[in-house]
Amino acid sequence: MGLTEWAYTLSESLLSEPLPRRWAHSLGVAKCARSLSPILGDDAQLLEAAAVLHDIGYSPAIAATGFHPLDGARFLRDQEGADERVVRLVAHHSCALLEAEERGLRRELESEFELERPDLVDALLYCDMTTTPDGTQTTPAARLDEIVQRYGPDTIVGRFIQRAAPEIHAASKRVGERMADVSVGGQPM
């Protein structure tokens, strides 16, 4: 079984029944990742696998700390023996260090999981922040507003996402520029 096939199967088994909306979101994020293949080169399957797996830490079957990037990455590393780069992308997706800081878990996240290449971190962040909870495409600004409204501005998630907003917009801009460069004859980095 290939990396992406394995990732879809695992994510579906953890999310589709207990959290169907989270599963729909994960499928949408993976679809977005596929659309970025022109800038990903040999890492296209890696990003798609991380995209479909990025939220498995929400699954009641594996949630331990309540911080889904850490729970998902630990599960992938400890129970699945997953590709180290996929694990790192899941651990650090969508400015996870900032949320870990809000939760008092930054030291654990940083010490257990190294950061992946910045261009791949940007790409996964872009995919997550341009996909609604139902798996449809949106803008980073609309996604940020939706998250703050859903969780509330004074919650851990609300505070973290507001702090992360500048980096989310910057990463989205970088990904957009890379896609524009490729569409006018550039090569993936």
TrEMBL record:
It comes from the Bacteria. Coiled coil: none annotated. Gene3D superfamilies: Hypothetical protein af1432. SMART domains: HDc (SM00471). CDD domains: HDc. Signal peptide: none annotated. Residues 22-130 form the HD domain. PROSITE patterns: HD (PS51831). This is HD domain-containing protein. The lineage of its organism: Bacteria, Bacillati, Actinomycetota, Actinomycetes, Kitasatosporales.
